[in-house]
Amino acid sequence: MPYDAMTEAPDDALLALYANGDGAAARVLTERLAPRVLRFAARMLSDPAEAEDVTQEALLRLWRIAPDWRRDEAQVSTWLYRVARNLCTDRLRRKRPLGLDAAPEVEDDRPGAVARLQAAERAQALDRALARLPDRQREAVVLRHIEGLSNPEIAAVMEISVEAVESLTARGKRALAADLAGRREELGYDDDGPI
Amino acid sequence: MTMTDRSDAMAELDSFFRAARTSAPVPSADLTARILADAAAAQPRARTQEATARRAWGKRWRGLRRLYLPALGGPGVIAGLAGAIVAGAWIGFLQPAPLASLASRVTGQTAMLEQIDLIPTLDSYLTTDTGE
Question: Which among A32, A54, A126 is the top mutation candidate for probing chain B, defined by the most B β-carbons within 10 Å of its own β-carbon?
Fold first, then answer.
């Protein structure tokens, strides 16, 4: 299959192509799935290097299961999030995250830098607040509100009911809102009107 | 916290989520290279039709072997049985001289295989008395 056509193909079709010896299919799957796994792992672990390791390991498990993949089993992305989640959980059990407080401050003096800085600071503030949430609430909130998964998809990833997902995201959002409310002045988002 | 406060807080939270989505980390060139190297190393070799057919026959044969071999007594018994069949056929068709003479002495018969009438004629029983 030509490379351009592959970018439109569903994940499971690409996985079947890869299992049949098509190397280009692996590149398309990597471009499509690695950023999603990395984003999720980075927010779960608050450690960029560990998030990269989890991403590589999750993809390696996908390559290994490719010859035995059954189309009716699950969505590839859901399966991959579940593997990444388990890998993150293992690492979190071994060691609590360092937190993004140790991350270097954003420095940028190009035009429009103030707006970018503010957005970056908000993202960092959110990451810090997420790191303070219980693990399961953090997983549910990240998957729902940053990765954009539906509640049934999150239920499949976390292997819980849809009702439990709704409860976790609701509690997580309330805790985040309360945490961030105390940081309005610090983050300077009263200066640019309602958000 | 009033209802309005709560909805304001949630609206603010949405702006944080938007900021998080736009400033998300992207895989470095090094990470992508590592992932693709893993993919190349773990990739199964391309399957040809011939190899697939060979694998299918092998699988069927293994299935039959698994099913019938224990019922017949295992591989040792099957080997013995096959040997006895071959030896019997060899002796029966070639009739080696030492064995033929031994058989003649034991049974008192000297007939060779080709002389045995396997379908004896019924002529002697079917004769009719014509009264002559």
Answer: A126
